[in-house]
């Protein structure tokens, strides 16, 4: 899952286009993000990608290059100072992800407070919420109101496979994209506490 905090007064977007299966889905998402949206204009061509030891870095790095961006891997909080936006990738568990993000939390919150674009992919999106059922008692970044909860289903988890993702409303992030199939591998999903978060 991905989330984009567009900044004050612009709302927040979460969507179900997962990119575990290659660059195409990521590039389809980043192309409008970089070229057509106000968020992309503010970021310019340099795109910071957070390397906190929990990410699908190579696919994100390649996708940013594919759409004409200049990816920059960030490994320390001081590298985020003065940044214009950030991609937080991630594969793994919520608790471990928050442990690894600890040195970056303050700077990420400052960026969000300044209205800079933040894009979270998979675990990177989950940690933007206030907490997760996967790691009770562990606080998330709290940039998005709500929690991440186990998918309520009698079906086997993790949920894996191709599913159709439907675009239900327009957003700067989704310009040029319509519905399509995406590959999912997850057991948890966001449950926002405010309707405009989705």
Explain briefly what this protein structure is.
This protein is of the alpha/beta class and about 200 residues long. About 25% of the residues lie in helices and about 30% in strands.
Q: In CATH terms, what is the architecture?
A: 3-Layer(aba) Sandwich
The CATH class designation is: Alpha Beta
Q: Order of strands in the sheet with the most strands?
A: 2-1-6-5-3-4
- The name CATH uses for the topology is Rossmann fold
What's the number of structural domains?
1
**Relative strand content:** 25-35%
Helix content: 25-40%
Corresponding CATH superfamily: Class I glutamine amidotransferase (GATase) domain
In one word, what is the shape? globular
Ranges with pLDDT <50 over ≥5 residues? 1-29, 36-40
Please write the string of helix (H) and strand (E) elements: EEHHEHEEHHEHEEEEE
The major sheet is characterized as:
6 strands, mixed
Report the end-to-end length measured between terminal Cα atoms.
12 Å
Work out the number of β strands: 11
Structural class: alpha/beta
The Cα radius of gyration reads 15 Å
Mean pLDDT: 77
If helices are DSSP runs of H or I spanning 4 or more residues, what is the number of helices? 6
